[in-house]
Amino acid sequence: MSLTREQTADKRWRVAGHVSSDGTTCIDSYDGIQIALLMDIREELRRLNTLFHCHNAIDIPNILRKIAKNTTKPKRKRAVKK
């Protein structure tokens, strides 16, 4: 049985040879389930990779530094002991 991303995405798994009526996908072996799950993980990682290459995501550390700089309290001046 050859698997495609559309057939295996976000499914509950059972080992068998057919697709059941309750929506679970049945695969011939546990190896097929592992490969299908790895395909799901790969797809999610690709999606995250495209999101993190967005200029908004790249600017997040700079934005957080600006916020931290603007919200810190200034140091109090202490009296000098004589």
Amount of helix: 40-55%
User: How can the largest sheet be summarized?
Assistant: 2 strands, parallel
Provide the residue-averaged pLDDT: 76
The number of strands is 2
Task: Show unreliable segments.
Answer: none
What is the count of distinct domains? 1
Distance between the termini: 87 Å
Give descriptors for this structure.
52% helix, mainly alpha, two-stranded parallel sheet, 82 residues
Summarize the structure.
This protein is mainly alpha-helical. It contains four helices and two strands, in the order αββααα.
Please tell me about this protein's structure.
There is one protein chain. With 82 residues, the protein is mainly α. The protein has one domain. 52% of the residues lie in helices and 7% in strands. The chain has four helices and two strands, in the order αββααα. Strands 1-2 form a two-stranded parallel sheet. It starts with a helix and ends in an 11-residue tail after the last helix. The relative contact order is 0.11. The mean pLDDT is 76.
